[in-house]
């Protein structure tokens, strides 16, 4: 990520015709790249994930760093969102989540989500929203106490996306500031 001060030095060295495209290129290149999409959310319900860890499988074609993910959830009565989400990436062992991983190569994995800390085991009616049927397996769930080795079919597939760069890494105000620096550099060069 370029800081505005560093950007100013870079932009002053670029000729006036190339400044604006260079600023736009820097802004575009800072966007997070979608590396996996399990499908858009539907209105067909979801699975509660405070009493359970819900897991969905996904396949990667090459080594990848997952920096961020997006999922859809809704509340139906109860106490709802606890203020944090515990997430894990598991390897695939015979079609079910296995060990928790920290680096990923090509292969099949599982994204596991839990509403709150793993010590939260009371149902609170906060649901990971479903997606339509796709080429992946149906989701699995592990009921509390967690990591006891019992994963069961939850009969659903859930909406989520994986990204290779943190979402919001370059917030909109920074992009606007960077463009402003480029335009100021253009004006300065023109004035000279």
How does this structure look, described?
The protein is an alpha+beta fold and 192 residues long. It has two domains: 4-31 and 170-191, no CATH class; 35-163, no CATH class. 23% of the residues lie in helices and 35% in strands. The chain is built from three helices and twelve strands, in the order ααββββββββββββα. The protein has helices at 4-13, 16-29, 172-191; strands at residues 34-37, 41-48, 52-60, 68-71, 73-75, 85-93, 96-100, 107-115, 126-131, 140-143, 152-153, 160-163. The protein has a six-stranded antiparallel sheet, with no helix packed on it. The chain has a three-stranded antiparallel sheet with strand order 1-12-4, with no helix packed on it. A hairpin with an 8-residue loop joins strand 10 and strand 11. Helix 1 (4-13) runs parallel beside helix 3 and helix 2 runs antiparallel to helix 3. It is globular, with a radius of gyration of 22 Å. The two termini are 30 Å apart. 27% of the residues are buried.
């Amino acid at each position: 990520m370029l800081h505005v001060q560093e950007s100013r030095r870079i932009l002053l060295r670029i000729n006036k015709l190339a400044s604006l495209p260079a600023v736009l290129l820097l802004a575009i290149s800072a966007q997070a790249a979608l590396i996996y999409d399990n499908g858009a959310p539907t209105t067909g319900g979801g699975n509660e994930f405070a009493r359970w860890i819900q897991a969905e499988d996904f396949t990667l074609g090459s080594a990848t760093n997952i920096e961020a993910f997006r999922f859809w959830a809704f509340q139906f009565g109860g106490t709802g969102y606890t203020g944090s989400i515990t997430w894990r990436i598991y390897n695939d062992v015979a079609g079910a989540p296995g060990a928790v991983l920290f680096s990923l190569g090509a292969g099949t994995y599982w994204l596991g989500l839990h509403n709150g800390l793993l010590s939260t085991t009371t149902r609170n009616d906060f649901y990971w929203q479903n997606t339509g049927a796709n080429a992946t397996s149906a989701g699995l769930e592990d009921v509390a106490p967690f990591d006891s080795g019992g994963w069961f079919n939850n009969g659903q597939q859930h909406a989520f996306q994986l990204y290779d760069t943190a979402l919001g890494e370059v917030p909109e105000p920074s992009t606007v500031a960077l463009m402003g620096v480029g335009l100021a550099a253009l004006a300065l060069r023109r004035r000279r």
